[in-house]
Amino acid sequence: MTATRAVRRWQLVGLLAALAGCATAPTMPAGPTPSAQAARADALLLDRLSWGVSTHDWLALQSTGRERWLEEQLHPRADDPLPPPVAQQIASMSIAREPLPALVRDLDQRRKAADAITDPPQRQAAREAWQQQMNGLAREAASRELLLALYSEHGLREQLAWFWLNHFSLHRDKGQLRAMVGDYDAQLRAHALGRFRDLLQVSVFHPAMLQYLDNVQNAAGHLNENYARELLELHTLGVEGGYTQQDVQELARTLTGLGVRLDPEAPKLKPAQQALYWREGLTEFNPARHDMGDKHLLGETVHAGGVREIEQVLDRLARQPSTARFICRKLARYFVADEPPAALVQRMSDQFLKTDGQIAEVMRVMVASPEFQASLGHKFKDPTHFVLSSVRLAYDRKPVLNAGPMLGWLNRLGQAPFGRQTPDGYPLDESAWSAPGQMNARFEIARAIGGGSAGLFKAEAPDTTEQPAFPQLANPAFYQAVEPRLGSGTREALDQARSAQEWNALLLASPEFMHR
Description:
Blueprint: H1 3-20, H2 34-49, H3 55-64, H4 66-74, H5 84-91, H6 94-97, H7 100-116, H8 120-151, H9 155-167, H10 177-190, H11 196-205, H12 207-212, H13 226-235, H14 245-254, E1 258-260, H15 271-274, E2 278-280, E3 283-285, E4 295-297, E5 300-302, H16 307-318, H17 321-335, H18 342-354, H19 359-368, H20 370-375, H21 383-395, H22 404-413, H23 436-451, H24 476-482, H25 488-495, H26 500-508
C-alpha cells in the first residue's frame, strides 16, 4: 500500500468513526415539508417492519399506501413472488426437495455405514463426507433464511420468522440438528403471524427442539428437567412468571416419553400401551417411557392421558397472563425499544389474551401506538439487520447467487443463523452489538459491500463466472427514503468522498443507517 493510499485509508476510518460515535441514535433533520415528512414516515415504517429499505419495496409502499401495505404485511398472501433465480435456488435445495424423515434417516444410515468401515483412512474419509453433507444442509437452511429476507414481499413475516426462531432458539451443531434446522425454520415461519399456541406446538413437538434440550432422554424414573425449565423460563412464562421448582418437575413428568424415533417401525408395546402411542414424522410419544401418574402444574391437576396431557399443558401455558406479558414485552423490545414502555406492553398483552394469542392482532396494536411511532429511526440494528439492509439498499432485486459472503459477515459479527450456543437466543438490545470491536467490523463490512459485489453474484457451483454487479446505493430508495433522514454530519462526510466506493461505505456506516 502506498503512503498516499495508507493516509487516505486512515482518513476514511476517521470519518467512519466520527459518524458512528458511540452508536448514538441520529438526530433527524428538522422542518421537512408535509410531503417530505410523509415520505420520511413511510421510509421509517418500512425500515422497521421489513429487513430494510429497497427501491422495490419503497415503490410498493408508495403505490399501495401505508394502510393497505400494513394490512398486507399483517395478513400475507399465500404466494410470494421471488425473482426466478432466487426461487430456483431455494427449490433446488435438499431441504426443500426431501421430507425431513427421509433426509435424517438417510444421513443416519450414512453415518453408521462410515463408522462400520474398518480401514482407518477410508473410515475417516467417509466420516468427513458425512460431516460435509450435514454442514451443507445447515448452510442451505441459513441461505434460504437470508434469501427470503432479501426478496420476500412479506418483510414483516420474515422478521417475525427470525424473531420466533431466536425466541425458540437452538444450536445447529448438536446431534442431528444440522439436518433438522431447515424444517424447524420453515414450520415456525408458517405460523409467524398466527397464534402463539401454534408456534409453541411447532417448537415442543419438533425433533430438533426435543434433541437440543434433551427431552429425548426424559423418561419415567429418569427425569431430565432441561427442556421443562427452558419451556417455562424462556419460551412461555418468563423467569418472573410465578412458577416454582415443583412446576418444573411436574412439567418434566408431563413431557416424559416425548422424543425422536428414526426407525420407521413402531416400538413393541404392551397391548394396553398401544392405544396411547402417537407418532408424526420423527417425533413420537412412547407410553412405555411416560410417567402415567397425575401431575400438579401451576396449581391445577393434569390427569393422566398420554400425549393429551402435553396438549392440555400447552393450552394452559399459552393462555397465562405471564406468558402474554413476557411475549409482548419481548416483541416490543425487538420492534420498539430496548426498554419498552410498560403501558404499551400492557396494551399488547391485553390484546394477546383477548385474541387467544393472535400475533397479527398484537402487532396491529403495537404499530398503531404513539410509542411505536415515536421510536422510528432510533432502534439500533442488530448484525442481521445491518447486513441485510445494506445488501437490500445496494442491490434491490438483483438475485444474489451466493449467500456465503453474508453468512461470513454474520459469523464475524457474532450472529450467525442457528449459531447461538445457549438456548436464550441472541440478545435484542443495543449494548450487545455496539461495542468498538463490533463497530470496527461493521465498518469493514460496509467497505466490502460498498466497494463491489463481494462474491454475492458468483454461484458456488464450480466453473461458474461471477455476474457483473456494482452496488447502486444512490438509487430512488436512497433519494426518496434515506437521504431526507441524513443529518448534517453525514452529509458533510459524504461530500468528502473521493469515489463511489468510498461514498457507499460512508453511507452504510453512518449513524442514520445503523438505526431503523
